[in-house]
Design goal:
The protein is α/β, with parallel strands linked by helices. Helix content is 46%, strand content 17%.
Length: 455
Amino acid sequence: MDTDTIIASATPAGEGGIGILRISGRNAENLLRHFFKPIGPISSLESHRLYLGTFEDRDGNLIDEVMSVVMRAPKSYTREDVAEVHCHGGLVIMRRIMDQFIDGGARLARPGEFTFRAFINGRLDLCKAEAVIDLIRARSESAGRIAAAQLKGSVSRTIHEFQSEIADLLALVEAYIDFPEEDIEFADQEQLRFSSVSIFSRIESILKNFDFGRILREGLSVLILGKPNVGKSSLLNILLGESRAIVTDIPGTTRDTIEENLVLSGVPLRLIDTAGVRTTNDPVESEGVFRAQNKIFSADLVLLVIDGSRPTDSDDLLALEFCRESKILLVQNKADLSTVELDERFVVFPRVSVSTRTGEGIDRLKEAIVGLVHGDQAVGEVSMDTVFSDRRHREALVRCSASVQHFIDLLSEGASPEFLALDLRDALHALGEITGETTPGDILDRIFTRFCIGK
């Protein structure tokens, strides 16, 4: 554990009304007292109380009038002594104040080091620490609610429940390892089987709903695909409510992908407009088609756009072939014109008729996009306590589930208690990686480097 006293700006760089510098470590209060001069006859600084005063350099020159606070351990964010200086939010002022602390022995904090110290000192488990950065980076209300629930302990409680139940199973199995002359009684076997199957089914239920949580947290990747001049860029513009993509009557206007963010009914979306799909000898257009094809593999949903006023042709079929393995929502554009009968190869997909010229059907399209995420259940009706959304958590749960399933199989085969215990220990180890009890150091480094400096 690094015991250095660390400092960083807790507010973004740039000009602002207030800038906050945060210091944590055993020398935090002493450093603050060296430079901060409270106004008035104050003999000592009370913990968790703001004081008005001046901040001076080592030669006694005024740098700024500030508010300062000391938060003594363990009642602080890091469970160390923490001090903050609330100064005017100018770059020069904040840099001068920070330099005084660094010259006095503090060092610049690494990304996420304050939260890492909170984790190491037991104030937060790893799930809650991860929720901090997710809350900061949330792009929608639903993502914020998931992060807030995780920070409150929703994921931790669920994992601890699984750990407790698996530990009880392990204690029962190890009792027979310690007393090998005893056979596992039938009643105990039934209890082991019943409990392990219950754990397995609940983990599988969480994994089944993972994509829903991931989409609410990370956003739904929606790719707009189709041949040239069917209205893909117009569709992007009307969904965004602004003229983001150039629209002309000339086929092949879009040569590269265009990506924009949007929130629909609490669901964050990343809309990706692509080059028109067709067979072409133009090297630039061919590269655009190639990039569009590559984007398909990472998309959660493909809006396959066709001209509803014309029969589908070979280029429409080429676009369909590109995304056939993806989740497709067919968009029949130009509904304001006369429509033709839909080719049977396109009938199998859910579809919405729209007109990007008049706006007809756009609301239905938005509802269909959101409906494909979570069916008829509104985001506001979902209990965020039951939602897992982090890929790292999913990977650990998959390994835990596999270990429990193997335990169930071995139990049915009458395997010896030693082998049963190995599976249960593996399951506990996987769950411990989620809360941080058994997480390897390189994974911890990767998690906390996602944080900004100062958090």
